[in-house]
UniProtKB/TrEMBL annotation:
Listed name of the protein: D-alanyl-D-alanine dipeptidase
BP-aspect Gene Ontology terms: cell wall organization; proteolysis
Catalytic activity: D-alanyl-D-alanine + H2O = 2 D-alanine
GO molecular function, one term: D-Ala-D-Ala dipeptidase activity
Family as reported in the entry's similarity comment: Belongs to the peptidase M15D family.
Co-factor remark: Binds 1 zinc ion per subunit.
Keyword Iron (UniProt): no
Record site feature (Transition state stabilizer), residues: R79
Length: 237
């Protein structure tokens, strides 16, 4: 069940995880997955690698050029593998509920179908240092926008939504003015994050990364030489 980006080699650069500055960014508090019961141990989700925080500051500056007074709102960033596993298990039960299935009594076919749904938006909670989940590298971030009134900007879907609306270009071709507005908001987030050299997940409007395996894999078509990811997993017990 390996995903294609997990084949990208990693040459760990050893950069530290540092806190995301809460005077520049809005951090969702309490952290959403902690609210659901996930245990971050002695860490918080609001850590990223040093250069990734620097790039996020560039993204925030770009956002201010595009939309003065708008802010990046961080939903989740560094994620221990235990939290990745917790969210996969949580979503597994959620999908079973939606399908009217008892998660204790699934046929192998049903179980596979449910996992296929879950892994559409969640990475595998792999402990293999060659295939770390993106958020466990400290190089991936889930985020949205806040407007000048401190209100969350309507992106036409919720973070982590298991539906077609999560696709970044879901509203692209719509003629409906509200849908066009949602697409415009997603493009503002994309433009700001691109200024920091982040790349967006092809299936999730809110997920961006820089320097991890997925980032290298997503820009591979424009690379002339084979490139390695500079961030591997940061594993704490
Ligand atoms: C589902 C979302 N929060 C997310 O982070 N997805 C990516 C692919 C992940 O699990 O790394
Ligand atoms: Zn993410």
């Amino acid at each position: 069940m390996e995903k294609p980006y997990q084949k990208i080699p990693i040459q760990e650069c050893g950069e530290e995880l540092i806190p995301i500055p809460d005077d520049i960014f809005i951090l969702e508090n309490p952290p959403p997955y902690q609210k659901l019961g996930a245990d971050y141990g002695n860490k918080s989700p609001y850590y990223l690698r040093q250069s990734v925080v620097d790039a996020l500051v560039v993204a925030q500056k770009k956002l201010q050029e595009l939309k003065p007074q708008w802010r990046l709102k961080i939903f989740d960033a560094y994620r221990p593998i235990a939290v990745q596993q917790f969210m996969v298990d949580y979503t597994f039960k959620q999908v079973c509920d939606i399908k009217g299935l008892n998660h204790h009594q699934l046929t192998p076919t049903e179980e596979k179908k449910v996992y296929d749904e879950v892994y559409k938006i969640w990475a595998i909670p792999s402990h293999d240092p060659l295939t770390p989940p993106p958020h466990s590298t400290g190089a991936a971030v889930d985020l949205t926008l806040l407007d000048q009134h401190g209100q969350v900007v309507d992106m036409g879907g919720e973070i982590d939504e298991l539906s077609g609306r999560s696709h970044p270009n879901y509203y692209q071709d719509s003629q409906d003015p509200t849908a066009q507005q949602y697409h415009h908001h997603r493009q503002i987030l994309l433009e700001a994050m691109s200024a920091g050299n982040f790349i967006r997940h092809p299936g999730e409007w809110w997920h961006f990364s820089l320097g991890d395996q997925m980032w290298v894999w997503l820009q591979n078509s424009s690379l002339t030489v084979a490139q390695k990811a500079k961030y591997g997993g940061v594993f704490y017990n």
